[in-house]
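User: Structure please.
Assistant: Input sequence and predicted structure:
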Amino acid sequence: MAAPLLRAGHHGTGRRPAARPAAEVPRPGRGRSQGPGLRTARRQREAAGPLARWTCPELAREAAASGIVASVSASTVRRWLADDAIKPWQHRSWIFPRDPHFALKGGRVLDLYQREWEGQPLSDGEYVLSADEKPGVQARSRIHLPLPPGPRRAMRTESEYTRCGTLAYLAAYDIHRARVIGRCEPATGIKPFTALVDQVMTAEPYASAKRVFWVVDNGASHRNWAAAARMRDAYPNARMVHLPVHASWLNQVYFSVIQRKLLTPDDFGDLDSLAEQILAFEQHYNATARPFDWKFTRKDLNQLLTRLGRHDPFAPQPLAA
C-alpha cells in the first residue's frame, strides 16, 4: 500500500513521511551528511515533474529507474527519510522581510515600548498608542442555540448560521496605561481612521499631552508620509510612527484579546448587537487590564535579523551596535 503524501505544512505526527527526490536517496554504504539538503530541494523542483510530493514507493521506483541503486524497497526509503535530519518535503508559510529599513523602523517602535525616543526617555506627559483596524467583523446568528457543556462534554456550537452583515472595529491601545479607545464603523478607510484619531486626541490626557506617538502599520487608511502629515496638521502634538512592512507582529494592539474573549465563538443577531458587545467589552477590559509584558527589544530584533541573514542573503541587515 502506498505511503500517504504529507500535506503542505504537515510536520509529522506519527504518519509515514513523504519522500524526498530520488536523486538524493543515499547509495548503499555511503556516509550520511546534512549537506545535500539544499540540493534536495533544488532537485525536487527540477526533476519532480508533475509531482509536488512523492510517496516512498514512487521514490523507490525512481531511484532504480535513474540508476542510483539497483533496487530498493519502499520501507528502506521510508527508514532513510525518518532518520534524516533534513526533511525538504516539510514547509511552513513565511513572509520574507523586504523593507531595507526594517531594523531602523522596527527599532524606533521597540524604543517607544521602552519609553524612549531618539535616545531620550519619554516624560510623564508623553504617550504611546498602538492603533489598528479589524475589518470584516461578522455578525453571524446561529440557527440553533448552543448546547451548554456537561460532564466530559464540551459546549456544542451550531456550525450553520445566518449572515447579518459586517462592520469594522478600529482601536487605539495605550500600551503603558493598558487602556483601549475604539469605535465601530461600516468599513475601514481614511475617514473612519480620522474619526478614531479625533475621538482620541480630543479626550484627556491626550488633548493636552506634550506628545502622543501613534504606532501604525502600512494599511491604506494611514499609509506613508501623507497620513502622518494629516495627523500632524490636525494635532501638532501627535506623531505617527510606521512599522516596517510585514511587521504587524510588532504592534501591541489588543485585537487578539477581543477575538479570543468575545468573538469566538460568535452569535450576534444583528450589527447593532455586535457593535454594542464590542464597546461593552472595551469597558470591561479597561476596568482590569494591565500592560502587556513586552520583552522583545531592539537587541532582540538585531539578533533575529542576523539569524535570517545567515539563510537569506536578501534579508534586511541589522543595525550596527
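The chain has two domains: 1-93, 102-148+155-310.
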